[in-house]
Amino acid sequence: MADETGHWPRGPARMLKATIWSFQGLRAAWLHESSFRLEVCLLAVLAPLALWLGDTGVERALLLGSCLLVLAVELLNSAIEAVIERYGPEHHELAGRAKDMGSAAVFVTMLNVLAVWGLILLPRLL
Fold first, then answer.
1. Does the predicted TM-score (pTM) go above 0.85?
2. Looking at the annotation, which residues are catalytic?
3. Which of 11, 14, 88, 120 registers the highest number of CB atoms within 10 A of its CB?
């Protein structure tokens, strides 16, 4: 969808604002989401391992990318939870379903990490 500037690329000032907003989102996730902090700590351990254990650029990208995907999905899950909490703490079936699905999305990306790492590294051990 076009914004007020149409489909043309945004200027440097607009890109700077978008970058600032992105960092604000990362900061908010770090401050308010313990799961995000834990996943960042795991990334701090796994990222160097991914770069060391990957034999090729593709393997390194898959090992590292699978971990980064968990963070991206965790951010989306946290955004869903924040919007639901905005409307009140009372239980609603649809709100509960949305939160459960967001959590399931994070879980599926964690299974993806296990699958990618296992498929790349296990054949070397066998």
1. yes
2. 74
3. 120
Q: Are 102 and 76 in contact (CB under 8 A)?
A: yes
Q: Is residue 54 a contact partner of residue 101, using CB atoms and an 8 Å limit?
A: no
Q: pLDDT digit string (tens) for 14-33? A: 889 999 999 999 999 999 99
CB atoms within 10 A of CB 97: 10
Nearest to 80 by CA among 126, 35, 16, 44: 35
| Long-range contacts of 96-104, Cβ-Cβ distance < 8 Å, separation of 24 or more | 102/76, 102/77, 103/77
d(CA 112, CA 94): 27
